[in-house]
Structure formats: C-alpha cells, structure tokens
Amino acid sequence: MAHGVDASGRAQVGLKTARTDRWWLAPLRIGVILGFFIVYATIRIFMNKWYWVDAHHYLTPLYSPCVTESCVPGSSHLGTWFPKFPVFIPFSIITFAVLAGFRGTCYYYRKAGYRSLFFAPAACAVPEPHKKYTGESKFPLIALNLHRYFFYGALVFGILNVYDGVLAFHGKDGGFGIGLGTLIIWINLVMLWLYTLSCHACRHIVGGRLKNFSKHPLRYRYWTFVSKLNPKHGTFAMASLFTVILTDFYIMALSAGWFSDLRFLN
What we know:
The protein has 8 helices and 4 strands; from the N terminus they run αββαααβααααβ. It is mostly helical. Strand 1 (52-53) and strand 2 (58-59) form a beta hairpin. Helix 1 packs parallel to helix 8 (233-256), helix 2 crosses helix 4 and helix 6 packs antiparallel against helix 7.
C-alpha cells in the first residue's frame, strides 16, 4: 500500500518535487558538519591519549572529567573513581554518553538529523523516501523523550568544564597564567553554556509549568532571559560544535608536542 504523497486519494504528480531552487544545499551542509563531528569525536574518544597538557593544566572537554586510574598524572581533578579501563574502552565513555545523549535528543539536532541524515523530509515540499512513519512514540525514537534528563547531566558537566577552565589559568611557575589555550577553552565554555541555557528543556524547567509569573518573580526573570536566548538555540548548537572541536584539537596538538602554547602571561 502506498504511503505519504503516493497514497491513494492524492494527486499523482509523478515528480519528486516541483521546486527549482537549491533546496538540497542546506540539509547537505548541515549533514556534512554533523557527519564530520561524529567521526571526529568517535576517533578522539577511542584514542585515549593527548587530552592533557600538564604545563598549563589544559584538559580537553571530551575527556572531562577523567576519573579512572588510566588517566595520565595530573588530569584527574576529581580523583580516580574507577580502576584502569581495558584498552578498548574509552576513558571518557561516561562523558560521551551524557553529552552525546544531550545533543542527540536535542530538539534542534532532531530537526537537523531528520532533514540531513534521514531525509524525513529533506526540505519543505520534498517528500521523504520512507514508506512508514511511527513518530517518536515507539522504540527507538521514544528514547528522544529523555532529553530533559540529559539536560540535568549536561548542567553537571558544564559546571565541571568551568572548573577545568579555572584551572587553565596556570602559569609555568605554578602561579597565574594565561595562554592562547586558556582563551580557547573559555570561548568554548561561553558557547557551551549559551547552547545549554538556550535549550527548550531549560526554558520549560525554569518557568514552563508556572501558572502565575507574578508569584514567582525570580523564576520569571530566569524564564525571560532563557526565552531571549531560545530563538538562537540552533546557532549556538552548531557554533558550539566548532568550538568543541577547536578546543580539543588545540589541546591535542599541545599534548602531542606538535607546537607550543602561545603565552600572554605566565
């Protein structure tokens, strides 16, 4: 039985789409970006090395917190909670699971993923190739409803990233210092927090269930602030992907000894 635009009772146009513009450009561009990030992050978490710069206390967000005995000395800011992991298990498996879950279930990334990776549909007035759609009420898409819970986990890891950023103000002599890596880390922190706080789940948690804002003036202020960020959630989502990659790559390069950190204040 035909479904969608090919269902009985609907006009049989015979064309995939009558659009003449380059409708495929936007989903292609987003798909390339998402695909690159997925490949890059997967490779990096399985490398299990080049994530810590001891001289300046730089820890990449992909490995924060590093809490196993497999971590290199100095990188375990919160201590070692777990014994050594086998070589085939990434040190950052917990971090990756929570943050990948947060982004993967994000409303913006759902839209981007549906359009760019699953073509459901790729653009307006362009039919999707799938013959059946069951929505997000059945497995596995029902798991997307866990987004609000992943949001709480993202908040915890965001606070840990801020702690890492404070430790990055470390000079060569053990005192206060600022390098290019410090600035990159903090730019990434700003983008990550803008992405997190502009989240739809954050807006709902702050004030979505209130019936009377006048009785909750403080939460109303928070809700107003988040509401101003919310329209730019997609922009923050994509920009933070680039800052995470930039931060991780820079710290990896320093840790591997490819070049030295540019210091402004030691």
